[in-house]
# Entry
Amino acid sequence: MSEKRSTQPTTTRPSRALRRTTGILFLVGLLSFGAAATELSSAFDWPDILREPADVVLPEYVDGGTGLVWIWLATAWTYAIIAVPILLLPAALDRRDDVALRVATWIGATSVVLSLVGFLRWVFVVPPLARSYVEGDATTKAAVDAAWTAQHQFGGALLGEHLGQLLAIGWSVTLCAIILRTRVLPRWLGISGLVVSLLYLLNQGDILATAIPGFPVWDLAGLLGSTGWGLWVAALGVVILLRPDNIGTSPGQAADDRGYAPSSPHAAASASAPSAPTTAGHRSGKGTA
# Structure
């Protein structure tokens, strides 16, 4: 008697450890950054002080002393943690071959790097400028003021805020579109992500107003957008952390009661394959966004 072998394709499911690591890192990054940012806001009136002139910002920075530099360093590197789970996400969702998600992943990681540059200039660029401004004469103050404005607009407004935020929004919008199309995660997560991404996008008015006087600004966009986006990323981490092991492994299951669906096209294809040679089957699979 010959042994019957299965010709159905097999898939490699992401390990529970990988999913847990990805979810935990999203949460650790957001919570630690939130703690550092709260301390920064208390010590330096961040982010409101970003729109103040040099004669306000630089003396206050000097008054903050070495402790303020350490707070900025902590804020920068706690935010950088988020890049790691962003890079792990395609594997954690078992969508390594999803071109859209792979592109979005690098966009998201790049956004973190740009924001990191914006934060770290407060550690490596601003301190000597602040000391020179406080200790200098009128001519020195005028020169430092010009240098401050140049680095602030380039490293802060352009790289950290404009490009950093736009790429972060691009990552979240693409991920939400993938979620809504494939149901790899709950539908509510995709919808809410699109909403907070739109709110976050409105904060660009405040950034563009630094270069285009009179550009429309909605004062609450920054607070609502950044807070909402951060909470959504935290929710993403929780959902991935609690994602059941059997999602996508039950043949023929389009979606379970939590709104998930098989993340591998092979599972859906195998489920709808004909059960006997004389039966005409209909093959279907989840496409990629």
